[in-house]
Amino acid sequence: MNEAPEIDLTPSAAARVAAIAARQGKPAILRLAVDGGGCAGFQYRFGLAEAVETGDTAASRDGVTLVVDEISLDLVRGCAVDYVESLGGASFQVTNPNAASGCGCGTSFSV
Asked: Which of 12, 51, 57, 109 could lock onto 102 through a cystine, CB 3.0 to 4.6 A?
């Protein structure tokens, strides 16, 4: 099976999730969801999850799991979640091939 993964997590994002989860005493599972709103129409929402739910799509790297629910998956299929530190701050960022445009803050997008 040589097809691209439906979702992916970069090594830097996996390391950051592992550190946050360890500090909070939670499983190293990052949930990415998409909500309506934001300055471009849809916005990304991140949070630690207790478990992978039925219907979730999951990707693992370095002992960390990224999960996306069935509804959000249609909007982020093929995406990669990265953790980026810059002069402007540090944040999780989504590289989403489905997004037609995004906003300057990088947290919302349109399709």
From this structure: 109
